[in-house]
Specification:
The protein is α+β, with helices and mostly antiparallel strands and 401 residues long. It folds into three domains: 2-144, YVTN repeat-like/Quinoprotein amine dehydrogenase (Methylamine Dehydrogenase, Chain H); 158-272, Sandwich (Immunoglobulin-like), CATH 2.60.40.10; 276-386. Helices cover 27% and strands 36% of the residues. It has two helices and 29 strands. Strand 1 (2-4) and strand 2 (7-11) form a beta hairpin. The longest helix is centred in the C-terminal third of the chain and has 77 residues, at 274-350.
């Protein structure tokens, strides 16, 4: 098997060339920097930009390499020590890998005593008594793996500060008792305008200070652990409620400490508090009551208006009936009255009797005409009510009185 800048190539028993770490669609492969076969006959491949690969069932599977919050993508060389651990030079230092669990146990860098963090490809040598030598652009780094002791103790993380909106929170709560040192507090309360905060913490260990990392999470907001090399965590929460902050330290040998917890009780905004909702309920009830009163008043006014309209229509119907009655009576009076006045006027025209009787006939005629005029006036009023009265224009002379 041969590693190239364009993947891995091997020849099987039938002289057929097999390609690994090669993308046929893009016609390109990974740049392989080092191939290594361990004591269990497992082949490991380090690449320039894709990290580490392990051969499993005639396939190369990627082994994710993550340290703190950074991914290791370049593996320059690989070698195994007497305890079956793999040591690799990378673009971030020399790392120790447990090949069974595929977990990084430690990462040593220039600040830990190496000549540099950039190493040369395929430049590694194992000397007797597990003395390893790695070559780099700045020289060689050599160490004895048997003399590197594993630190199996990781002290508990201490929370040192709680900052919100740029200010330190000076008072904390421990079982409903205020304390001034957050390291002794188990819980704290924050107002609605303090939900953007930063928690500072530290792991009191002076061994391999540069290699320790932290894992933290805020239950109630997230479930996964966050990894960082910094000693602080920043959050911005939106909702009120109880949150449980958890943090633990990881020393340079991958040993994790116990979890340190801090309960954060975020108070609701004043407009979300219980008394605010009581006020909202009272206002709603008041508005509903006033609206109901207005609705009832409007309904009553509509009913009164409807009743008045019914009464008005009823009065109109009564008046109409009265007028119709008087009109009918007028017609009944007018016909016989006309029949009376006609012969009476003829009688007056041909009368040759006494003057006294003639005057009496004139009185009868005058009263008959007056009665006929009243009947005609009543009928004209009826026409006016029915909009049947016509105005006739005529020429005449206006005399001043």
């Amino acid at each position: 098997m041969v590693g190239t800048q364009n993947g891995l190539n091997s020849v099987d028993k039938n002289n057929k060339v097999l390609n690994y770490l090669f993308d046929k669609n893009q016609d390109a492969g990974f740049d392989v920097l080092h191939l290594y076969e361990d004591s269990n006959k497992v082949i490991w491949a380090g690449t320039k930009s894709q990290g580490l690969f392990k051969r499993v069932n005639n396939q190369f599977l990627k082994v994710p390499l993550q340290w703190a919050d950074k991914e290791i993508t370049t593996i320059h060389s690989i070698i195994e020590d007497g305890n079956g651990m793999l040591w690799m030079s990378s673009n971030q230092g020399i790392l120790k890998l447990n090949k069974d669990t595929e977990q990084i146990l430690s990462l040593n860098q220039q600040k830990d005593g190496l000549v540099g963090n950039e190493f040369s490809d395929n430049a590694v040598l194992r000397l007797p008594q597990d003395q390893l030598v790695f070559g780099s652009v700045s020289g060689i780094s050599s160490f004895n793996t048997t003399k590197i002791r594993t630190d199996n103790y990781a002290p508990d993380v201490l929370i040192t500060n709680f900052r919100t909106t740029g200010d330190d929170l000076l008072k904390f709560n421990d079982n409903n008792v205020e304390v001034e040192n957050i390291a002794f507090a188990k819980a704290l309360k924050i107002d609605h305008n303090q939900r953007n905060f930063t928690i500072e913490f530290t792991m009191p260990s002076y061994h391999n200070l540069t290699s320790k990392t932290y894992e933290y999470r805020l239950n109630g907001l997230e479930k996964e652990w966050n990894t960082t090399v910094e000693n602080k965590a920043t959050y911005a929460i939106q909702n009120a409620g109880d949150y449980n902050f958890e943090v633990r330290g990881v020393n340079g040998d991958g040993i994790k400490s116990e979890i340190t917890t801090l309960i954060i009780k975020a108070k609701p905004a004043p407009w979300y508090s219980w008394w605010a909702f009581v006020l909202y309920t009272a206002v709603f009830i008041a508005v509903a009551y006033v609206s109901l009163r207005i609705l009832k008043s409007r309904t009553r006014l509509q009913e009164e208006l409807k009743y008045e309209q019914i009464q008005l229509q009823r009065n109109r119907d009564i008046n109409e009936a009265k007028l119709q009655f008087f009109t009918n009576i007028s017609h009944e009076f007018r016909t016989p009255l006309t029949l009376i006045l006609g012969p009476l006027q003829q009688l007056l025209a041909d009368y040759k009797g006494t003057n006294k009787m003639y005057k009496k006939l004139l009185v009868i005629e005058s009263n008959g005409k007056q009665l006929l005029q009243l009947i005609n006036t009543l009928m004209d009023f009826r026409k006016l009510e029915k909009n049947q009265f016509e105005i006739h224009a005529a020429e005449g002379t206006s005399l001043s009185f």
